Amino acid sequence: MRNSDASDVEPRAGLATWHLCWQAAVGREFFSDVSLYGRVQARLVDAHRRRGGQLLDYVLLPTEIHVVSVLPSGETPGGIARAVGNVVSRWVRQSQPITSPVLAAPFRAHRLLSLGELREELRMLAWRPVFQRQCRTPIHHSHGALRVALGLRTSPPGFNARPMLQAFDSSVVEARAALKAWIARRPADRDLLAWELARGLRLACGRSSPQRSVAVDLRGTAAAALVAEGGSAGIDGALEVLGRWAAARLGIAGPLESLPSVDPRGVRCRALVGCLAVRHRICSAASVARYFGRAKATLSEQMAAARKRPSEQLLIATPVEVILAEVAAVRRRK
Question: How far is residue 248's CA from residue 266's CA, in Å, rounded to a whole number?
Fold first, then answer.
């Protein structure tokens, strides 16, 4: 496999790679009529051809349709999404004459900014049918591009699997071996949760906030990673993770709750958590205040003061990747 890492940029200027997803509304299934599998595949190919795009990967599931698209300059994912979503909705209504929406949302889009991100997306999509209990292993799912790329089934009319293989090697034989080895590693549960949250496929919930969908842009990826680190506690779990990290950085030994409410170290820690939560779009300052049992106005004043202190400015600017690495390091030492 060619040497590459997540810092690689897209190899061809003017092109953008996107993951598009359509999710069925509650009570709906896309493929109750099995003939729709072939028709949807053909529609995906045609929609990309008409807009000068490239269909890199696709995964068809009963309640989800996933596509990885390479689009030329000036072409937005919305054009592909409408060309596919509107037609698929009409076909599903014809096969399921029920008066209710077909799609849970018009579509969701996430841009892939590097070859490393593209490969990671391909692995997540390869395992999606397994996590949805459609098959036992990724290569057993018959309604997707993976088996075509691996040479396990013939290509649908108009679909070319070569671009997917070129993400791993220029040689078809070497690329297939590299792709198969790459998807062999099952994603960790925490990585899966973060991916689902960032793609809008799962809702993040907690006592500090009503149930809501995490944003699907790049900044939403940071929020998803923190919520996933918090586990089943959702948004509260993410705030707890930030609280542990902030307390360690501020030299607070023991639980934050053990400090007196007026202790300046606790005040600084809560303000830092609030700043980080708002910066990474985990939740609002009001939600952080409710989590800590404090007045929103008071916490907002403390957050404003924290943003003016140079030492706190550096902590607020800490990347999520660093925060999670330090939290994991502390967890391993215990």
Answer: 12
pTM: 0.82
68 strand-pairing partners: 19, 57
Using CA atoms, how far apart are residues 143 and 57, in angstroms rounded to an integer? 11
> Using an 8 Å Cβ cutoff, are 234 and 54 in contact?
no
Tens of pLDDT along the chain (334 residues) come to 544 433 333 445 578 999 999 999 988 999 999 999 999 999 999 999 999 999 999 999 999 999 999 999 888 899 999 999 999 999 999 998 888 899 998 899 999 999 999 999 999 999 999 999 999 999 999 999 999 999 999 999 999 999 999 999 999 999 999 999 999 999 999 999 999 998 988 877 765 444 444 333 335 688 899 999 988 888 889 999 999 999 999 988 777 776 777 788 899 999 999 999 999 988 889 989 988 989 999 999 999 999 999 999 999 999 999 999 998 887 777 6
- Residue 280 main-chain phi, psi, to 5 deg: -95, 10
Q: Which residues contact 114 (CB under 8 A, 6 or more apart)?
A: 5, 6, 7, 8, 9, 10
Per-residue CA distances from 235 to 83, 88, 294, 299, 327 (Å): 35, 34, 17, 18, 17
**What domains sit in the chain, N to C, each tagged with a CATH number?**
16-187 (3.30.70.1290), 190-333 (no CATH)
Sign, Cα dihedral of 73, 75, 78, 80 = negative
